[in-house]
Amino acid sequence: MAHKTDIEIAREADKRPIQQIGERLGIPSEHLLPYGHDKAKVSQDFIDSVQDRPQGKLILVTAINPTPAGEGKTTTTVGLGDGLNAIGKNAAICIREASLGPNFGMKGGAAGGGYAQIVPMEDMNLHFTGDFHAITSAHNLLSAMIDNHIYWGNEQEIDVRRVVWRRVMDMNDRALRQVVTSLGGVANGFPAENGFDITVASEVMAILCLAKDLKDLERRLGDMIVAYRRDKSPVFARDIKADGAMTVLLKDAMQPNLVQTLENNPAFVHGGPFANIAHGCNSVIATTTALRLADYVVTEAGFGADLGAEKFMDIKCRKAGLSPACVVLVATVRAMKMNGGVAKDDLGTENVAAVKSGCANLGRHIENLKTFGVPVVVAINHFAGDTDAEIAQVQEFVTSQGSEAFVCKHWAQGSAGIEPLATRVAEIADSGRANFAPLYGDDMSLFDKIDTIARRIYRADEILADQKVRDQLREWEAQGYGNLPVCMAKTQYSFTTDPSRRGAPTGHSVPIREVRLSAGAGFVVVICGEIMTMPGLPRRPSAEAIRLNEAGQIEGLF
Amino acid sequence: MAHKTDIEIAREADKRPIQQIGERLGIPSEHLLPYGHDKAKVSQDFIDSVQDRPQGKLILVTAINPTPAGEGKTTTTVGLGDGLNAIGKNAAICIREASLGPNFGMKGGAAGGGYAQIVPMEDMNLHFTGDFHAITSAHNLLSAMIDNHIYWGNEQEIDVRRVVWRRVMDMNDRALRQVVTSLGGVANGFPAENGFDITVASEVMAILCLAKDLKDLERRLGDMIVAYRRDKSPVFARDIKADGAMTVLLKDAMQPNLVQTLENNPAFVHGGPFANIAHGCNSVIATTTALRLADYVVTEAGFGADLGAEKFMDIKCRKAGLSPACVVLVATVRAMKMNGGVAKDDLGTENVAAVKSGCANLGRHIENLKTFGVPVVVAINHFAGDTDAEIAQVQEFVTSQGSEAFVCKHWAQGSAGIEPLATRVAEIADSGRANFAPLYGDDMSLFDKIDTIARRIYRADEILADQKVRDQLREWEAQGYGNLPVCMAKTQYSFTTDPSRRGAPTGHSVPIREVRLSAGAGFVVVICGEIMTMPGLPRRPSAEAIRLNEAGQIEGLF
């Protein structure tokens, strides 16, 4: 029997009108701002009205270091949300929005997979409700206002060589990475080196995802550093008077988007910051709203647990006052094999020894997650080729680590395939066992914060940082930014900064290439290795095959 | 008594749910794709289903050459739509969407004014339903794919010096007018001169507004010329394989937007091409859909009648097979005075002689419009300071031209103030008097088409064009583009190419600076004078004062 593809399954979805999904959460239809019949934004007024309600339990889904075998973190997030609803709980899902640009390079990503998906999939991979376009506009308005400020006399005395605010576009366009602007004479301004990042890399995106409300959004936008003067004092977006207009451009985008799973359960899909130079989680406003409308909220964080979960805990939860009640760590037998040294082409052959050896990566993540004081359960995302002996090996290993592993078949079976995990997660969340604390305190020095993450999460022996980097960190501390958390930008494929080192390496060094201050988002970005903030298109971009077929359906996007 | 501002009036609007507005036109709610509660797109399926219905009467509202005194063309379009409904007719309005970027320079434009407005005004000046963002994405995807094509080996053998496809952004950003891209080394491509236009200047915008349906859209997108080879043969968007993906990005944007007037009458607001390098009318799909749902459709064209109405007739109507039944030419006493030589500061003083002398401009437009075979009625858009003698002068003049003029007080009174005009317009439209024909035939040479417009509409004595321009036109004719209409890009302030020459000048020359081929949109652009396709921000951009107030309302945008 041929399997249906994700898009085939998604197209067969029996979607309910979005008002019905909102009703499940107690959102009156006048407070749902529809975008078509299957998407809606939750009104700011309604969000304001539920601020005093008790919060539900927050469940984080994270994963081992990703391998080409795939782990299915989003699929498990969706499946677990459906599973909790299937066992009679009132649960909602919170995930990130997809970026438009990359879909024209490689095929677009489903939100989940198999029978654990969020729909409408096409819209979510295209313009959706326009949030990213609003972010692009707000970001580029600030860019235009900075250059315009300089053009008309530069009252703020900006050092034109030290404008740090670039432009953005939601497109994979390598030609825009590095450009010279304002050519062509006096009327076009002062020629300057400049460049574009992809929209998800914008600090505006990170801010939208961390802001509590529109007031907080405006304050944070004003706090962004856009340039420096000759005396190196920062020029803020507020000095350019852009914060108000940017907030106006973002007022609709700040309202979380509600969609549904294939099983008609509510899913908030809102915000999508990079998981390297930003924190990689859906918006705080979506998560906190969901927590006031549902008893359980299942969410996820970008990349593996070393990056995603750490930032979720140390940035998002710390800043938003959130306390996760349970962590679900997703692993697959195939990924364990790859961590155990098996090549991708050999994954079809049973290899219990490789699974056993690869479990070291899983074990390290379990241990790390426990340091945050939150109970950890492992979800083994089942693939058809997994053998009983291999699965038993993973389960045995997890038990030996003092945790529990559940085989989950949500991809093939929907909620019915993940009920045992859902039941256990609900029990743990209800038990109140979690005693969350971030990894480090606010008052630790910036360098010590980096050092703590490197030693305790990555298990590195040392940090390599130039004097320049150390001086920069101290300068920011002197300017009052010392209490910020750090946001690590490192390869997601390894605990180390070398993407080829799988498993659970020790004894390595973490070289810091550069540090950047996201003063509005409220974190210091620590760049370890090469980070690409504007992707390019491949030799044969998927866009070449994307088109509408005779039935008006989109072909080639998935 | 202090007058209420447009935004105050708009905020007091008693808006109906958009489904009720759709119902008036017979659009079932499942075929209205809502964007919030007061905006919706009409589904493509519904549009397909009404193609065999008879069409209503099309009424064009155009104006004299604009002066700083203001004519109120959109206000009259909206007022006339309301007026027709008030006298018991089933009428709809079709106007263009506003561009986002310019609102952050100068204050945003209302859609109409006073008691003749379309709402929601804030949304229409911000992201609205995302159409312009979709156009920006589609345009820039093509840009990225061209550079990517060159990067990966340039199979099409594009002459990298002859890439004519720029990028766009819906922002006033002079720094982007002229840039050098792909700096920074091999991985970023080949350095090249490049630049950005504002989104409304994109050929994609013009195409979206002229395409009959999604198939026609895709064909036209494929027909766009993006570059030339060393042998000067054109490279089309189709050669880059971008047409399919661009169509997918535009599929929602192609669906017309439905909103409402203050009097709850239906208004389609869709598309917004430049009125200089493009044809400056709302989309064909909105107009033809409205014509199948309403008995009367009131629409407008950009700038004065010499540019806007001429393009409406010779480009939009010719290409879409539309036949206007009546033209309403908007004039004001104040504008007549300015055309008669009065300075803006002196407009408050009665001056019948200046009105009389200024009527020459009005008379020229009446005469011109009649050459298209369509009956012309003049709407005198009433201002509080107009005196009876001044108004009588305009009416007398219009009568002497064999036409009729109606004093219209829709700005102050809504539909009640424009019923006489509405009644007469309906009579004329119903009379079948119109016998529309475009100004020139398809088979006239491109140069002769330009010459015809210059002599018969602008009343110029001659065209000034370099051999290079004449050769270029002949080359396009040889390539099969000779049957296209021409799209004149000229100042809107005068019949001549000199913006300071008001009234009805004769004996002037029309110098052609440049010609461009919009092969997808299907016209040859003839540039007479300086045309700015990327505006800049002023010294004190309105953005500096735009913000959300405590009540969550937008301040400073209007």
Descriptive report:
Two copies of one chain form a homodimer. With 558 residues, chain A is an alpha/beta fold. Chain A has three domains: 6-130 and 256-431, P-loop containing nucleotide triphosphate hydrolases (Rossmann fold, 3-Layer(aba) Sandwich), CATH 3.40.50.300; 133-250, 2-Layer Sandwich (Domain 2, N(10)-formyltetrahydrofolate synthetase), CATH 3.30.1510; 446-527, Formyltetrahydrofolate synthetase, domain 3 (Roll), CATH 3.10.410. Chain A is built from 18 helices and 26 strands. In chain A, strands 1, 2, 3, 4, 5, 6, 14, 15, 16, 17, 18 and 19 form a twelve-stranded mixed β-sheet that branches. A three-stranded antiparallel β-sheet of chain A has the order 7-12-13, with no helix packed on it. The longest helix of chain A is centred in the first third of the chain and has 21 residues, at 131-151. Chains A and B meet through helix 6, strand 9, strand 10, helix 9 and strand 25 of A and helix 6, strand 9, strand 10, helix 9 and strand 25 of B.
Detail the topology: elements first, then pairings.
Two copies of one chain form a homodimer.
Chain A: H1 6-11, H2 18-24, E1 32-34, E2 40-42, H3 44-49, E3 57-63, H4 73-86, E4 91-95, E5 112-113, E6 116-119, H5 121-125, H6 131-151, E7 158-163, E8 167-169, E9 179-181, E10 192-194, E11 196-198, H7 203-210, H8 214-223, E12 225-229, E13 234-236, H9 243-250, E14 257-261, E15 266-269, H10 284-293, E16 296-300, H11 305-320, E17 324-331, H12 333-339, H13 352-370, E18 376-381, H14 388-400, E19 404-408, H15 410-413, H16 419-431, H17 446-456, E20 462-464, H18 467-481, E21 486-489, E22 509-511, E23 514-518, E24 523-527, E25 547-548, E26 554-555
Parallel strand pairs in A: 3-16, 3-17, 4-15, 4-16, 8-11, 17-18, 18-19, 20-22, 21-24
Antiparallel strand pairs in A: 1-2, 2-14, 5-6, 6-14, 7-12, 9-10, 12-13, 14-15, 23-24, 25-26
Helix pairs in contact in A: 4-16, 6-9, 8-9, 12-13, 13-14
